[in-house]
Amino acid sequence: CMIAACYLLHSGVFTSAAKSIEFVNKKRRPDTMDAITNPSQIRYVHYYEALLRSDSVQCGTYRVKHIRIRTVPSFSSSLIDCGCSPTVAFSVLARPNSNQPDVPWYPKRVFNQIDHMLDVKPRHYSSDREVQIDIPLERYNVHVRGDVCLGLFSEGDKMCQLYFHTGFIKDSILTFEKNVIDM
Question: Among 3, 104, 138, 176, which one is most buried in terms of CB atoms within 10 A?
Answer without folding.
Answer: 176
